């Protein structure tokens, strides 16, 4: 039974990306190092990785961010978008997001949701835990845990 549980955990870690409420980034490291975590399973050289990282930062609206910039120097919205960029680079079929817009301003929240909806249209399953009714209204299906 322990072996089956371990294999299940390994499978989930392999096929999923998890967006933490507190971003799940290495705060004392730079943006590049954090994005490298999304590229662990990709076989490409340094130049290709650098291009992928710059492209994904542009996709999440962070063209003004430098790869050498430390995470602790970023705003909350910027850090959340770096976390999302890391997930995009990992390219998982399943994305789990925990209160991903809780500490963000409405404009940044809308931008993050647009990116997630774009990813959903790329045949990904996205599960979001949230208290935000604006996000509920954008979901294909809502499960209210208070009504179970």
Quick overview:
The protein has 148 residues and is mainly alpha-helical. 46% of the residues lie in helices and 9% in strands.
CATH homologous superfamily descriptor = P-loop containing nucleotide triphosphate hydrolases
Helix/strand order, N-terminal first: HEHHHEHEH
CATH architecture classification: 3-Layer(aba) Sandwich
Tell me the domain tally.
1
CATH class: Alpha Beta
Within the largest sheet, what's the order of strands? Answer: 1-2-3
| Structural class estimated from helices and strands | mainly alpha
**Main sheet?**
3 strands, parallel
CATH fold-level label = Rossmann fold
Integer-rounded radius of gyration = 16 Å
The oligomerization state is single chain
Q: What's the shape? A: globular
Pfam families: ABC_tran
Keywords: ATP-binding, Cell cycle, Cell division, Nucleotide-binding
Organism: Streptococcus mitis
Protein name: Cell division ATP-binding protein FtsE
Description:
- Strands 1-2-3 form a three-stranded parallel beta sheet.
- Helix 3 packs across helix 4 and helix 4 (76-90) runs parallel beside helix 5.
- By secondary structure, the chain is mainly α.
- The two termini are 29 Å apart.
- It has a single domain (2-147), classed as P-loop containing nucleotide triphosphate hydrolases (Rossmann fold).
- The chain contains six helices and three strands; from the N terminus they run αβαααβαβα.
- GO terms for molecular function: ATP binding; ATP hydrolysis activity.
- Pfam families: ABC_tran.
- It comes from Streptococcus mitis.
């Amino acid at each position: 039974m322990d072996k089956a549980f371990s294999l299940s955990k390994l499978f989930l870690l392999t096929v999923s990306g998890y967006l933490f409420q507190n971003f799940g980034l290495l705060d004392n490291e730079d943006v590049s190092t954090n994005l490298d975590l999304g590229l662990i399973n990709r076989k490409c050289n340094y130049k290709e990785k650098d291009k992928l990282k710059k492209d994904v930062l542009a996709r999440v609206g962070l063209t003004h961010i430098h790869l050498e910039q430390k995470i602790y120097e970023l705003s909350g919205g910027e850090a959340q978008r770096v976390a999302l960029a890391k997930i995009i680079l990992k390219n998982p079929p399943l994305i789990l997001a925990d209160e991903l817009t809780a500490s963000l301003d409405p404009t940044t929240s809308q931008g993050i949701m647009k990116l997630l909806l774009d990813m959903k249209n790329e045949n990904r399953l996205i599960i979001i835990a949230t208290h935000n009714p604006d996000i509920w209204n954008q979901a294909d299906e809502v499960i209210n845990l208070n009504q179970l």
